[in-house]
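Dear support,

I submitted the protein below through the web form. The confirmation email said the job was done, but the results page showed an empty box. After a refresh the structure appeared. I'm attaching both so you can tell me whether what I see now is the final result or a partial one.
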Amino acid sequence: MEVIPPIVLYILVDFSVYLIITLSLNMEAGYAGLPQFGRVLSVITGALVAGAIPGRILALLYGYPHGAEYASYEFNYRIVNELNIILEQSPLLSIGVFLLTLIMAMMLGAAVGYVTSRPAIRLKEAYLGITLLAMGDVVMLISLYYSPIIGGTTGVMVPDPFRWVGPYRFTAATLVLLTLSIVVLIVVERLTKSPFGRALRAMRDSEVAITVYGRDIARLRTYALIVGASIAALGGALYTFYTGGCIASTYTRLTWTFWPWAFMMLGGTGNNVGVVLGVLLFVIVKTFIVTYRGVLAPYVPFDPVWLEYTFVGMAIILIAMFRPQGIIPERPIFTIARKKIERIFTTLETPEEIRA
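What the results page shows now:
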């Protein structure tokens, strides 16, 4: 029994997860100007943490197989079913496992962001973008074909920290994801308006100018990648917990890199409020296409299973042609109130006179 209709739950879940991931992308690409074409790398890192670590820790604590056999098709579902029974009877344990996993996912995501920044952080945009893109595919393929991590091509079930809620499991999980996405939005908004955020924008607009003011470009890029990767890893871990399973083939560059790019471009690059709007519009349209594509089949000259991909591709092209700044363009961030700036230029008062 669910309080919220399934289609609304689907929209809210997709919105929450993609909002977290797109906000992380906006910080790196929108504010710092980095060619982040490997967003999937951080997302799959968070998913791997949720898929491989908490189940093994619980299995070790309660005496179940926790090595390579944990990820095998024959044992995984049996072990996880037993663990879910334990979690269902222990809300505090469930919450603890959930929070600990999210912390580990963000920490490992930050570490991955640092490591991936090393090879090409001082190079020009194309080299850094290609490096990040290639690393995302490498991690996905290793996870897909090396079974001991998350079961290879069959994937693994994941212990469910929301099982204790009972029949309202999906409603509760959706509300938790939505709450965390709002928290991430607030944190990213504050961060991008801080001196660090202004330094990222200055670096994006003029590397020469920010260098003159004594800021290290390589260090700023690295910090941006670390923060963005930790946030994206959080989104990957949340998505894995919600779905209850983890398989590497789910995390493709199309779904977890280029779709967030489309969301960001639609809403407005360098504008977190625009990102919220872009993600919401895309998710609503995509959900209705997936839900009703069978009805649209007689009206399209191809298999309707490709409708959502066609829609995203066309949207990217049209946005680039007619609205490259997005629905809500980026706005300047002032270090002092705008009214005070207007008074300085209209009354020719000095800042000291205004403060007095």
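Response: this is the final, complete result; the empty box was a page-load delay. The chain has a mean pLDDT of 87.
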